[in-house]
Design goal:
alpha+beta, Arc Repressor Mutant, subunit A, Alpha-Beta Plaits, 2 domains, 4-stranded antiparallel sheet, 38% helix, elongated
């Protein structure tokens, strides 16, 4: 990895559908050299794939909630059971095992407060592993670089 690779990655994060010709112009390389670098970044696993960025509101998602979840047990089986349950929950777009006073941070996206209440009560509230739930409703995102 060098400064040119970093520049390529930044440009691809901004626009993953940019043509190789345009990308090459943006980073100051010939199209063939640019393509070789992108292919090398893909082959090495630095670039894992490409995604579409969706307008969640047009899909009926009106509420994003960051949820901190504490587990009742610290055994591996507790974590694995919780992670399996979150993998099955379509409302959960991210599930992070974190350090601190709780074990997990979730990013949950739902249509509205009633849908979140259902998730909170009927999904999280039914798991034996869960001992605490703290919800933080997002009022907006001034920066979101997830791709």
């Amino acid at each position: 990895m060098d400064a040119i690779d970093d520049h390529i990655l930044r440009q691809l994060q901004l626009d993953g559908r940019v043509t190789n010709l345009e990308l090459a112009e943006r980073v100051g390389l010939s199209p063939s050299a640019c393509l070789r670098r992108v292919q090398a970044l893909e082959a090495s696993g630095v670039i894992k794939g490409y995604r579409a960025i969706l307008d969640r509101t047009q899909l009926g998602v009106g509420l994003t909630v960051f949820v901190m979840v504490g587990l009742s047990g610290q055994l591996k089986r507790d974590s694995l059971a919780f992670e399996r349950a979150m993998a099955k929950a379509p409302e959960v777009l991210e599930c992070h095992n974190i350090t601190g006073s709780v074990e997990y941070l979730l990013r949950v996206e739902v249509s509205d407060l009633a849908a979140y209440k259902h998730f909170h009560s009927d999904v999280l509230g039914t798991l034996n592993q869960v001992s605490s739930i703290t919800s933080h409703v997002s009022l907006g995102s001034s920066k979101d670089m997830r791709a």
